[in-house]
Amino acid sequence: MSQIKGKDTKPEKLLKKALWQAGVRHKTQKKPLFGKPDVSLKKYKLVIFVDGIF
């Protein structure tokens, strides 16, 4: 279990790349938000969690 990465996984990278190409600018939070979201869209007051299966 310690070998499993907690951030910057392949699904997260694909989502971030797709959002960026669609013109949706996003941020990875430096200060922790409740639940530690993977992507946050401040303009829309939206956070996105990417859950994976391992």
Q: Give Rg in angstroms.
A: 12 Å
Count of distinct structural domains: 1
Question: In one word, what is the shape?
Answer: globular
Termini distance?
10 Å
- The largest beta-sheet arranges its strands as 1-2
**H/I helix tally:** 1
How would you characterize this protein structure?
By secondary structure, this protein is α+β, with helices and mostly antiparallel strands. It has one domain (10-48). Helix content is 22%, strand content 11%. It has one helix spanning 10-21; strands at 39-41, 46-48. It has a two-stranded antiparallel sheet. It is globular and about 35 Å long. The model has no long low-confidence stretch (mean pLDDT 80).
Which features characterize this protein?
54 residues, alpha+beta, two-stranded antiparallel ribbon, 22% helix
